[in-house]
Amino acid sequence: MKQLSSAQIRQMYLDFFKSKGHEVMQSAPLVPHDDPTLLWINSGVATMKKFFDGSVVPKNPRITSSQKSIRTNDIENVGHTARHHTLFEMLGNFSVGDYFKEEAITWAWELLTSPEWFDMDPEKLYVTVYPKDTQAKKIWLEEVKLPESHIFEVEDNFWDIGEGPSGPDSEIFYDRGQAFNNLAEDDPESYPGGENERYLEIWNIVFSEFNHKPDGTYEPLPHKNIDTGMGLERVVSVFQNARTNFETDLFMPLIKKAQELGNGVVYGDEAATDVSFKVIADHIRAVTFAIGDGALPSNEGRGYVIRRLIRRAVMHGQNLGIQDAFLYKLVAIVGQIMQSHYPEVLEQAEFIAKVVRMEEDRFNETLKDGLQLLNEMIAQAKKNKASKLSGKIAFKLYDTYGFPLELTTEYAKEQDLVVDEAEFEDQMKQQKERARAARSNAKSMGVQNALLTDIKTESKYVGYEKLVTNAVLKDIIFGDKLSKVAKDGKADLIFSETPFYAEMGGQVADQGIIEDENGNIVAKVTDVQHAPNGQNMHTVEILRPISVGNEYKLIVDDAFHNEVRKNHTATHLLDQALRDVLGEHTHQAGSLVEPTYLRFDFTNLGSVTPEDLQKVEQIVNEKIWANLQVTTVETDLESAKKLGAIALFSEKYGDLVRVVQIGDYSMEFCGGNHAVNTGELGLFKIVAESGVGAGVRRIEAVTSREAFEFMEQKNKLLQEVATQLKITQIKEIPHKVEALQIEIKNLEQQKGSLEAKFASQQAADIFSNVEKIGGFSIIAAKVKVSGMEQLRQLADQWKEKQISDVLVLATATSDGKVNLIAAVVPSAIKAGIKAGELIKEIAPLVGGGGGGRPDMAQAGGKNPAGIAQALEKAKKILEK
User: Fold this and answer.
1) 164-207, pLDDT tens digit by residue?
2) Are residues 337 and 418 in the same domain?
3) What Gene Ontology cellular-component terms does the record carry (predicted)?
């Protein structure tokens, strides 16, 4: 076996399958694109779903990739086992209806054992097969010539996710020798496929050939597929003879840096601290890649995962004696390790490190609160002479403050307590069920639609050059069947060529009509989408009978189309302007281009300030007024990148790409329609900026006529304000408003002064009415003041004069609400009367709630009719 680095292993795998006619697909971003079933890309096949379910037919049915993936369903195992990771890379080769078992098995064997490639010892390789898959076993025996003693039939070798594609699989194991085993050689589990450390699974080949139907039966798929997965981290451990995945070149540079930053703790000295080193190395890889792909820390979804990972790593850093922020220092090291295949990580390292540092600093503040809660719970448990610490509290510490369970367990152990781990696990289970339920209504993977995937009709898009064309109707899909004729209702049509743009890249589909040779309108085009083989498929309302083979005139709605293309050009200008103002870390995260407005989503740490929005808007308008030419060129992918064209991280590009250039200002990959020059846009106006998710902001804007109408509406509103203010010119509004604000401030001061005087006058009457109840003196009264501020003033006067033991005051405000306040002197507090408890008792009677300190508390309510009853209850409490 060759001595190879992780980068060499990855590249050799991809090169091997490229030599077998596979297209090397770039690793997709971890943030899924248009897939609500996934929080993260969690496997190589996750990016192939559109090919396997037939919604898209790939140009090349043979594909290979090294796909970065994140899984956090068993995060607690990271660091405790040899091979659990949150971020991992899955090497895979895929066949979409092309080759099947024979090629998949023989090529796997060639890559693993050929001296030209991995050069593994065949004697150390074992495989498992599904017992009923006699074909796979036969190939291993007869084609590969693998001895039968190296083949094991295992009932679990069947890949099935419930409804959808499924099939048998064959796993390949590497024998690391008895020295690596955690079991005796004669243990029943000491075999390839058993629960042991000797036989390491390095590759799984799935033969996807059945559709698992809702009734539980299996039917053959119209096209059989191959889906394989080889975990890079574990296969690297084999090549580098490492006991675990962590003692490899993928992790050791991170572990060594953490060791430098620690308080003299050395990796390999102690099991507990080794776990911390591993968790830190694992988590910073996942966090770095996730942030690099556009996700940011937050309290929900992907952002919450990132926040949890950072907080777990920080806690494990403290276990190594690292007290200050340190994770951000590891980001560049991740980039250096992965640079050969993921150069973008190092390019973004400064921004990623900034995000991590901010999150570390934030957590260090939260940490104090978490430790305070933990210490309080430990003290409470000891006071109650309990031997266990609540699992619910441990879960709260984990879920809210980021405390790993093992940390809470260690703290508890120091105080001779154990954590109720069963209760903790129950809380974890409930959380996972809630998360699963949130995504369960979306389908995991669809089943191939042979009707659409089998349509191979040539269809050309000509909408870049013309919006009207004559074309032959090639296919009619009517009622989920191919038809020669459609007479009424809805149908999907494919023509030999079309000027209609199919919805893509945020640009909505064109609309229009279809005419016959006599000029009669035979159909209205309501939508256009791409068929699996890439044709523009027109969804239409049939008005007159149409037939396959006839020629028709396709006419795009010119006005609709022109408004869309102008707004599309505006999104490109906006994209670049945001980079100019906010920084290069800003990436497009989605867009929608309609005829009447545009919507643009982008990544950013926080909201955009009004000042920055104004700068962005100014830049876009300056480029519009500069009347820049908009040009397009079609070239190969590498040449486009060399030109400096910006690619969207969520899009896949073919061999040839269109590059849209706006003067010397903007250059992006884009297949959409655009203005001829920026002057056509006329005016650009931002109408809204908001947050739409973790680290994702949204700008809504208008151009041209809509921008003018938006400004006119604003102008009309200002004219109305000027009229109400009784001024003649709009420019006088700010001065008039300023004068009114000063006048209002003066009136409020006068009002406050009068209210204070009125409150003082009432105080004389209220404070003279002291009642003796149950050994305490109390003043309980309803007063006429404007709100809580005046009640607090009365309470301050009461406190200075020490008139009674307890004070309870209530007022009904002008808007129909209630304010309550309670105050108690220290001697009464010692006797058991506490303002906070008192207010909680009486507040429900006025339809509200509240609380506070033992000496002072307040509440609000919605039921003024209950004031008298609340005051009476306050008195009764003193009788107890």
Assistant:
1) 778 999 999 999 999 999 899 989 999 998 889 999 999 999 99
2) yes
3) cytosol
Tell me if 577 sits within 8 A of 689, measured CB to CB: no
Which CATH number fits the domain that encloses residue 608?
A: 3.30.980.10
* The pLDDT of residue 439 is above 60: no
How does residue 444 score in pLDDT terms, banded at 50, 70 and 90? very low
Q: State the DSSP H helix or E strand holding residue 686, giving kind and residue range, or none if neither.
A: strand 684-693
- CATH number of the domain that 17 lies in? 3.30.930.10
The answer to whether the annotation marks 674 as part of a ligand binding site is: yes
85-122 pLDDT tens trace: 999 999 999 999 899 999 999 999 999 999 999 999 99
User: 609 CB contacts (<8 Å, ≥6 apart)?
Assistant: none
User: Contacts from 407-416 at CB under 8 Å and sequence distance 24+?
Assistant: 407/315, 407/319, 408/374, 411/374, 411/378, 412/378, 415/378, 415/381, 415/382, 416/387
670 annotated among ligand-binding-site residues: yes
| Residue 725 domain-assigned (yes or no) | no
191 and 49 co-located in one domain:
yes
Is position 750 within any domain?
no
Query: Is 530 one of the annotated binding-site residues?
Result: no
Which pLDDT score is estimated for 597? 93
Show which of 672, 698, 724 is a domain's final residue: 698
How confident is the model over 661-690, as pLDDT tens digits? Answer: 999 999 988 889 999 999 999 999 999 998
Residue 587 known to bind ligand: no
Q: What is the predicted pLDDT for the residue at 441?
A: 42
Residue 741, in any domain of the structure: no
Three-state secondary-structure class, residue 519: coil
Residues of the domain holding 545: 450-556
Query: If you write DSSP's letter for every residue of 435-496 in order, what string do you get?
Result: HHHHHTTS-SSPPP-HHHHT-----EE-TTT-SEEEEEEEEEEETTEEESEE-SEEEEEEES
pLDDT, residue 614, reads 96
What is the mean pLDDT of the segment spanning 361-382?
80
| CB 458, CB 231: distance < 8 Å | no
Query: 839: domain CATH number?
Result: 3.10.310.40
Same domain, 378 and 403: yes
Q: Is residue 165 included in any domain, yes or no?
A: yes
What was the pLDDT predicted at 298?
A: 79
Alpha helices in 586-669 (DSSP H): 610-625, 637-643
Which contiguous run of DSSP H or E holds residue 405?
helix 405-414
pLDDT at 36: 66
Provide the number of structural domains found in the chain.
5
Hey, what long-range contacts does 582-590 have (CB within 8 A, 24 or more apart)?
582/608, 582/612, 583/351, 584/351, 585/348, 585/351, 587/294, 587/649, 588/648, 589/294, 589/650, 589/696, 590/506, 590/650, 590/696
Q: Which residues contact 875 (CB under 8 A, 6 or more apart)?
A: 771, 773, 778, 780
Q: Are residues 106 and 166 in the same domain?
A: yes
The residue from 391, 415, 439 where one domain ends is 439
Cβ count near 189 (within 10 Å): 14
pTM of the shown model: 0.69
